[in-house]
UniProtKB/TrEMBL annotation:
This is Predicted protein. InterPro entries: Depp_CoAkinase, P-loop_NTPase. One of its GO terms (biological process) is coenzyme A biosynthetic process. The chain crosses the membrane at residues 207-226. Keywords: ATP-binding, Membrane, Nucleotide-binding, Transmembrane, Transmembrane helix. CDD domains: DPCK (cd02022). Belongs to the CoaE family.
Amino acid sequence: MIVVGLTGGIATGKSTVSNLLRARGVPLIDADVIARQVVEPGTPALAKIQAYFGDGVIQAVGTLDRKKLGTIIFNDEEKRRKLNGIVHPAVRWAMLWLVLGYWIRGNKYCVLDVPLLIEGSLWKMVGKVVVVYCSVELQLLRLMLRDNSSREDASSRLNSQLPIAEKVKYADIVIDNSGTRQELEAHVDALVRRLEQDAGWTWRLSWVFPLFMVVSAAATLFWRAARRVKGSRRGNKKE
């Protein structure tokens, strides 16, 4: 099975591509959704956050107060690293189990939607990297329109992130979202066709070793059971 990492920059249209893939039945794992799930009440990650940051980051209903936590880590690099050290491993484990589930169900490929795929070095763990791209100027205009922000504020947000041109350097596939919605849908359809084609033999070969292990384990269990039955019969004859 091919594991595909999908990423982009702010206002490049990654979420739109993600939704288009999901609408086409592509197995998709959203890192942002998982990041919220791993800190729900009763989870080990939330307990660790509470132990380190204190009860003040927990709301009366038992959920994480993201706004207050964000204020705490905003200008504190050490605390931000501590939070990432709690949340990121939990997210990665959850994603791994979901990928395993898709593999067991026989999917040829799945897509990991990860905003910080490059920054967090998760690109090293996927088979293909897909980057949703548009020019910086278009990115800036879209961000201003989306958030109703000034050019200065939008530029500040863009400058705080890894430039989209740098992310493109890691890409196996680039989806150019500089045009119309119809053009973007055509790019997504082309991506799905390519994944279907590339995953053909990969999907078949990925089952060879696990299938061998299952058959081998079953044969071993059968042989041991047969020997136990044979030994039991010999014991009965001696009596």
